[in-house]
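Supplementary Methods, section 5.1.

A reviewer requested that the exact input to the structure prediction be made available. We therefore reproduce it here, unchanged from the version used in the analyses.
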Amino acid sequence: MPEPLPRRVPILVGPTGVGKTAVAVALADHWPVVVISADARQVYRGLDIGTAKPGADVRARVPHLGLDLVDPGERYSAGRYARDAAGWMVGLAPEVQPLVVGGTGFYIRALAEGLFREPPMEPGRRDRLRAYLTSVQGLATWAVRLDAGFSGGGRQRAARAVEVALLSGRPLTWWQAHAKATGVLTPWYVRLTMPRALLRRRIAERAEAMLRDGFVEEVEAVLARGVAPDAPGLDGVGYREVVQVLRGQLARGSLVEAIVRATTRYAKRQETWFRHQLPPATMTLDASGTPAALAAEIAGAWARVGG
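The structure derived from this sequence is encoded token-by-token as follows.
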């Protein structure tokens, strides 16, 4: 008897600032939703403002899984995310609809397409290499030299690419392509997009709101707990710029523009990744409309495919 196909699950993606959370909340009017967050920054405890983490009011209305998993000094990989998220979905009641929401493409691909089987790497050598890489400058350059397929994404991802290439003898992208296991779900993708000028305006408004809400103070509190300025959790867009201000490397008056510039670049990379990595059948929606209207359109399409 053939194995049953993995459960079809809607996956809502798009660049930062496009309004994914608002649409996910609006979908709760159509389905009994539990959101499976696919955001590599929202996994960190204590990093709330700068990651635009859903507040208590949103989580009271729509349960979220995948938030506040690790401390800012700890690494959290796409592979670990996929294993965790698969476990969360297995634990849901049959009548509950899991909805994967996020902008971290590597998390989504690991969950939807399957984990690659990590090559054997001697733990002692790996620990020594990780300790060494914390002090290496220009990690992204080394990652590209060792793995031509490396597409960027911050110091943590660069260190991972260097680590796998040196310890296994093959680039990380080779392992991802040739040692893939079966996915745990059948993805049904919805991609939110938006005219670039409008998205930049939203990003600017959000950056200003974050600073009013205490973004700088949030980072000060994290550093005061002994977290290193270059810790994995602080290596994200926005956090890097705030750390630079606190270390005297960037003028406070330049902070908003620096965050907007870095976030806009990041959003562009996300758009490019989703445009090229998602299947042609992906449902693509202009997110300029209201969350309620977008949710109604998504729910209607889901019903038509037999979701």
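The chain has two domains: 8-115+181-304, 117-180. These observations are discussed further in the main text.
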